[in-house]
User: What shape does this take?
Amino acid sequence: MTSTRALRSDAERTVHTILEAAERVLSRNPTASMEQIAEAAGVARTTVHRRFASRDALVAAMASWATRRFAEAVNAAHPETTPPLIALYQVTVNVLRVKIDWSFAMNLALTADREAAHVHADIEGRCERLFAKAREAGVLRADVDPAWARRVYYALIHEAAQSRDADADALAARLVDTLLRGVGTGQSLT
Amino acid sequence: MTSTRALRSDAERTVHTILEAAERVLSRNPTASMEQIAEAAGVARTTVHRRFASRDALVAAMASWATRRFAEAVNAAHPETTPPLIALYQVTVNVLRVKIDWSFAMNLALTADREAAHVHADIEGRCERLFAKAREAGVLRADVDPAWARRVYYALIHEAAQSRDADADALAARLVDTLLRGVGTGQSLT
DNA sequence: ATAACCTGCGACATCAATGATGCAACTATC
DNA sequence: GATAGTTGCATCATTGATGTCGCAGGTTAT
Assistant: This one.
């Protein structure tokens, strides 16, 4: 039993290495071949096919993995029981940490996997509830369409996650500040 | 000469039809085949190959076309000679009109074509000069990193352009409002 | 009617990516 | 040292996308 566990652990380590390499390669070039992914992972192409029956299976595994990490990131912030502003910041930090390393896989989850899509839809709902609570608490403007606010939030997270070498805390602070106050001094067109 | 002009006009109409179809198809599925693009354009696959020597050539033509429209959109707003706030709004409206229909091709231009990349870099420079002027005019906060402000602006344009069926004027007004004032009521973390 | 031009269709060659398989070699466990 | 599990390598078949060509038919202007 000990041997089995050790050996399976080896295989799982390989799987993880491949997933990381796939994220790195596919984020730069979504049409990259299995060969290129294998090379980036430092393994033979046949090994990739041994671990993932097909290209779709590999992509699905990436979506599943990233979605799990995504859900964990949101849960860890306890957005339902924490004051809205704190929760917003905490969710942002946690999600950014994941998305900086799994940006491609997270975007993938929206379309590819049906189970992953369900989780994303669930999180979207929780996000909207958080925004609704923030609105009631007077943190968010009442004259802003909640759906638009959420889209802006997602867009900012996507943009911030492109900064690969930056500190997640600093990114999150700047992101939330921009989301709430914008980049202007106050005057507007309306 | 008259006949030649009429016939060439036919060919150019076909080219334009193919470009539009390619934008529609590739924006949904970037790995779609020439066959699918031809089908969407209502022409035979061989006709596509007659007009565009290769897939890369088609993609480059899309990038070139979208880049031209993009530059026109920016120029039409005269961002150098118009008051910053007005220019910001006008540029936003014009660019949104183009980007709603050519989102895929415009993203493409950043990497594919070297000439298109040059135009994009040029426009990015003009955008940063506009932001600098806005900052001096007191429209933009002085404590916000200009590069970050530009990235936020681009991200918002990208997000707003996803609303396919909306009015560009309304989108632009909401976009600029959000960019300048954010979605919050005033209090922040810092 | 004629000529120029364009298109659709069918056929063909090519090529790269995918996926499967057998075998030898390596490593860790017992 | 024997064993089980894993990997690398070489190899092969398959498939789908790409690109080319020739021909027949249709349109438009002269």
Remarks:
- Chain B has two domains: 1-52, 54-181.
- Chain B touches chain A at residues 30-31, 85, 89, 138-141, 144-145, 148-149, 151-152, 154-156, 158-159, 173-174, 176-190 (CB under 8 Å).
- Residues 12 and 51 of chain B are 9 Å apart (CA to CA).
